[in-house]
């Protein structure tokens, strides 16, 4: 990673995509209720599980796009001059 730090963005993409797959397949660990005052469980009680999964998925999709943007802008070797 120290030789090619731009590949950290691709690891971020992989992580976000794993969470998106978990949201689509409704895996419990993705929207597992946790402790604390404001958490996923409180949002599920307010809005419903399906709505929370959709909004969470959109947020993860934005994360994928940001990581892809970071990879392609940080890696100048992809653009020969």
Question: How confident overall, as mean pLDDT?
Answer: 85
> Mind telling me the C-alpha Rg?
16 Å
* H/E series: HHH
Major sheet, described briefly?
Answer: none
| Share of helix, binned | 55-70%
User: Which stretches are poorly predicted, pLDDT < 50 over at least 5 residues?
Assistant: none
Number of helices: 3
Strand segment tally? 0
Estimated structural class: mainly alpha
- Percentage beta strand: under 5%
- State the shape: elongated
Our measurement of the CA-to-CA distance between the termini, rounded to an integer number of angstroms, reads 25 Å
Topology:
Blueprint: H1 7-24, H2 40-47, H3 49-74
Helix pairs in contact: 1-3, 2-3
Describe the structure.
The chain contains three helices and no strands. The protein has about 80 residues and is mostly helical.
Précis, in short:
The chain contains three helices and no strands. The chain is mainly α and 81 residues long. It is elongated, with a radius of gyration of 16 Å.
List the keywords.
mainly alpha; 64% helix
């Amino acid at each position: 990673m120290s030789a090619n730090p731009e590949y950290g963005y691709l690891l971020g993409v992989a992580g976000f995509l794993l969470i998106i797959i978990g949201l689509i397949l409704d895996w419990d660990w993705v929207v597992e209720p946790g402790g604390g005052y404001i958490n996923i469980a409180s949002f599920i009680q307010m809005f419903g599980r399906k709505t929370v999964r959709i909004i969470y998925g959109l947020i993860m999709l934005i994360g994928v796009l940001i990581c892809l943007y970071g990879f392609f802008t940080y890696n100048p070797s992809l653009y020969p001059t």
